[in-house]
Design a protein that fits this description.
Largest sheet: 8 strands, parallel
Helix content: 25-40%
Strand order of the largest sheet: 3-2-1-4-5-6-11-14
Order of helices and strands: EHEHEEHHEHEEHEEEHEEHEEH
Number of helices: 9
Strand content: 15-25%
Mean pLDDT: 86
Low-confidence stretches: 254-259, 292-296
Length: about 300
């Protein structure tokens, strides 16, 4: 299943998009990519076509004249701090951008729309970022039926990968372990996260798209819950170096809310990248390639 499918994937240059493109390619799924900047060459080579577009602008969106089975909408502002510093930008991109992509899907005759949201959506700890994600969800839920678009919403937990943004907690911990620079956290060391590697998330997202479910909200989490202080300890053990760290908890970012009653929860099965293996992979890549970060 999937070999005859073609997806539009937004945000192919971002934290999750590249992994989704690779997972789709392995399954024989063709991908039309959309983002404000081109992905790295090795990812672009896996795309059937690429559409440059800034969802925060008012430019006209257009797709190649080919049938598309589904949209996986990953693009958006995903950094809580950035959203708090510039709420209008978060709203314009996360809500307005979602509206534009939904209308693009309708005009192109695409019948299935999957929104990548967050477990922070609509929660006090999510602050402006959570509100913008809830706004995007609300648009889908209110307008999807009238626009003849089947929809699913995937609320994603704490994701990490190689070359994640420097605001990513796992990336910051690894960087501190390798460089010896002090680590300052804005969350409690007792905060709990069910960390999920982006490669596992990508496989789950492809499965959700292929399931063609309708009017469903799905929570995606890692299989194991970790306290932040235990992630730091694990990084110290792998790197064989103590991390000088301090914590100034912010109520905004205190705890990622986990599963809620109305949501079906999905966790990785056999292919899960465990956090110890994932941290080792991030460290190895940073040692090999330097300390460059993505800005997505």
């Amino acid at each position: 299943m999937g070999a005859d499918e073609r997806f539009l994937v937004t945000g192919v240059s971002g934290m999750i998009g590249a992994y989704v493109v690779e997972a789709a390619y392995r399954r024989g799924i063709r991908v039309v990519g959309l983002d404000r900047k081109a992905p790295p060459p090795h990812i672009q080579s896996l795309l059937e076509s690429f559409v440059p577009a800034d969802l925060g602008a008012e430019e006209q969106l257009a797709l190649p004249p080919v049938p598309i089975d589904a949209v996986l909408h990953l693009a958006g502002i995903s950094d809580l701090q950035r959203a708090s510093e510039d709420p209008p930008l978060a709203w314009r991109v996360n809500v307005g951008g979602t509206s534009r992509v939904v209308r693009l899907a309708e005009s192109h005759g695409i019948e299935h729309f999957i929104l990548a949201s967050s477990l922070y959506a609509g929660t006090p700890s999510g602050a402006e970022y959570g509100l913008s994600k809830l706004g995007a969800e609300s648009f889908i839920r209110m307008c999807g039926a009238s626009m003849s678009v089947r929809w699913s919403i995937v609320r994603i937990g704490s994701v990490y990968r190689r070359y994640a943004p420097e605001t990513n907690t796992v990336q910051r911990v690894v960087s501190a372990a390798l460089t010896g620079k002090p680590l300052r956290l804005n969350l409690s060391p007792e905060s709990k996260r069910s960390y999920l590697h982006a490669s596992d998330l990508a496989e789950i997202l492809i499965d959700v798209v292929l399931s063609k479910s309708n009017e469903e909200i799905i929570a995606v989490e890692g299989s194991t819950i970790w306290r932040v202080k235990d992630v730091i300890k694990l990084a110290e053990e792998i790197c064989e170096r103590k991390i000088a760290w301090s914590s100034t908890p912010s109520t905004r970012y205190e705890t990622t809310p986990l599963t809620q009653d109305l949501i079906r929860t999905v966790r990785p099965a056999e292919i899960e990248v465990s956090l110890p293996h994932g941290l080792q992979d991030v460290m190895d890549s940073m040692r090999r390639d330097g300390f460059a970060y993505s800005d997505e």
